[in-house]
């Protein structure tokens, strides 16, 4: 027993015939048609789906055909089918449509006595007339018309049924559903003399169409078909001796009758004309003639496919390795002058040569350790002006306090930044700190001017200390402006402590709120 699968690709779908040949010569054919829809219109995908359908679902048990062949009409179909089947595991022969049809006609024996035959294939989207030499299979002449097709027949039937309905009824009828029912009329009239179209609407009965009415409805298409076949036969170098009708349109009895009336030559009709091409491809796949047709999919294309995959993988690996190597060399190689900018920099001006003896002489007595050599002294000067009250008089007491903090030396960049530590308020000293002479080893620091007290600032009430003439006596310690002639206030730049010349000074002034 041998099993072969033949397929015929068309614009409306793919027909498949599963042919089983028994050892006693008997044959069985299972035919299925897979229609194209809006979601699946690619011919190659339809062929692959047909193979899966006919090998796994149609037979009782999953079957692996001994040979497969698919018939194509145009080069576009051949390319689409070859591209789809190359990815599959099946070895499929690519056969021209006319060769597959001729193989089936030879198998039937209907054209054995004729040398030249015109094969008329009436499909859904058009009609093809091929004049061939049935002895050697040579194509003599071929022509195709899209004006004559099965869809034109369906349109005429739909217009006839719609004309029988009232305009108010047509507005409530689903057009797609009605067209599908009109399409079934040509199939039903192939075996019956009468067909009925049901209308899904209340108070509207079915529309009945007889065989004669149907022939009259599609008469324009029949006339165009006869004219097209006649023109093609006249243009052929050899006049056909017989006309064979195949395809879905050949199932309509009115078509065969119209062709017999139009031509004197014999018109060959088949019992199942719509399966002729697919069955012929299945018959051709099991013969020695199949070796003359190219193979796609597994087999000859498999070696080229595997070699291509290996070569592509090697090329991809080489490209990736080159990219990784080039990137690694570039990143690991040190640059001559890297341009690095820190996100932030804290800079403290440092004094690398500090004199502990001088610092110890000017500091307020405390338990803080003496800064080591190379450390920086940050001096914070705070001026505290008390808030006078109504009940108790107070005088502003200028106080200068030196606080020493230790900072680690840091590399100096563009802009200096000073770290400031502000201590809590401490009682003012009763005596001014000693003022040592300047240290010649220390650098010269800029002079810092004390801000003047605003004129609108409230003056504290005078104290009881007065001079003999009634004027208040100046107090050098409490009144910054009451110094005697020739006496320099502590804020003056002439007698600043040595630390102010060798350290960074930050002045913080606390102003009281206005008196209420």
Describe the structure.
By secondary structure, the chain is α/β, with parallel strands linked by helices. It contains 13 helices and 15 strands. The protein folds into three domains: 1-110 and 274-314, ATPase, nucleotide binding domain (Nucleotidyltransferase, domain 5), CATH 3.30.420.40; 111-269, 2-Layer Sandwich (Nucleotidyltransferase, domain 5); 347-410 and 495-516, no CATH class. It has helices spanning 43-56, 75-86, 97-108, 150-163, 167-170, 175-188, 211-217, 219-235, 253-262, 276-285, 300-332, 356-362, 498-502, and strands at residues 2-9, 13-21, 27-35, 67-72, 91-96, 116-122, 127-133, 138-145, 194-197, 207-210, 242-246, 266-268, 295-297, 378-384, 504-510. The strands form four sheets. The protein has a six-stranded mixed sheet. Helix 1 (43-56) crosses helix 2 (75-86), helix 4 (150-163) packs across helix 6 and helix 8 crosses helix 9 (253-262). The chain starts with a strand and ends in a 6-residue tail after the last strand.
């Amino acid at each position: 027993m041998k099993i072969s699968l033949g397929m015929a690709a068309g614009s409306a779908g793919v027909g498949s015939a599963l042919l089983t040949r028994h050892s006693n010569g008997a044959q069985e054919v299972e035919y299925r048609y897979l229609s194209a829809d809006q979601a699946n219109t690619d011919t190659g995908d339809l062929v692959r789906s047909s193979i899966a359908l006919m090998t796994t679902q149609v037979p009782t048990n999953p079957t692996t055909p001994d040979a497969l062949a698919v018939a194509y009409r145009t080069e576009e179909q051949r390319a689409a089918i070859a591209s789809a089947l190359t990815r599959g595991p099946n070895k499929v022969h690519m056969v021209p449509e006319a060769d597959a049809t001729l193989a089936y006609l030879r198998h039937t024996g209907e054209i054995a006595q004729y040398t030249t035959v015109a094969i008329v294939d009436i499909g859904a989207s058009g009609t093809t007339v091929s004049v061939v030499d049935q002895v050697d299979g040579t194509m003599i002449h071929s022509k195709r018309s899209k004006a004559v097709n099965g869809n034109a027949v369906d349109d005429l039937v739909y217009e006839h049924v719609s004309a029988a309905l009232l305009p108010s009824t047509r507005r409530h009828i689903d057009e797609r559903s009605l067209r599908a029912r009109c399409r079934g009329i040509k199939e039903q009239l192939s075996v019956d003399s009468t067909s009925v179209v049901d209308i899904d609407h209340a108070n509207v009965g079915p529309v009945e169409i007889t065989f004669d009415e149907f022939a009259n409805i599609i008469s324009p298409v029949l006339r165009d078909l006869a004219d097209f076949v006649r023109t093609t036969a006249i243009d052929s170098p050899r006049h056909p001796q017989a006309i064979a009708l195949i395809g879905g349109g050949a199932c309509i009895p009115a078509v065969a009758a119209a062709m017999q009336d139009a031509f004197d030559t014999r018109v060959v009709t088949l019992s199942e004309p719509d399966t002729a091409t697919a069955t012929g491809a299945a018959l051709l796949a099991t013969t020695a003639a199949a070796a003359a047709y190219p193979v796609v999919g597994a087999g000859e294309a498999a070696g080229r496919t595997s070699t291509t995959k290996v070569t592509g993988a090697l090329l991809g690996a080489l490209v990736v390795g080159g990219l990784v190597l080039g990137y690694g060399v570039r990143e690991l190689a040190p640059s001559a002058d890297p341009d690095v900018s820190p996100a932030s920099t804290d800079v403290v001006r440092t004094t690398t040569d500090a004199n502990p003896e001088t610092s110890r002489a000017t500091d307020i007595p405390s338990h803080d350790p003496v800064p080591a050599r190379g450390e920086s002294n940050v001096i914070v000067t705070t001026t505290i002006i008390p808030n006078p009250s109504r009940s108790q008089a107070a005088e502003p007491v200028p106080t200068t306090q030196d606080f020493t903090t230790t900072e680690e030396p840091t590399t100096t960049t563009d802009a200096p930044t000073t770290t400031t530590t502000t201590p809590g308020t401490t009682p003012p000293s009763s005596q001014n700190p000693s003022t040592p002479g300047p240290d010649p080893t220390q650098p010269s620091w800029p002079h810092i001017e004390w801000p003047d007290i605003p004129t609108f600032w409230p003056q504290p009430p005078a104290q009881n200390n007065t001079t003999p003439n009634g004027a208040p006596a100046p107090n050098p310690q409490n009144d910054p402006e009451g110094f005697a002639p020739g006496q320099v206030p502590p804020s003056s730049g002439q007698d600043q402590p040595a630390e102010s010349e060798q350290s960074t000074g930050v002045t913080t002034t606390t102003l009281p709120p206005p008196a209420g």
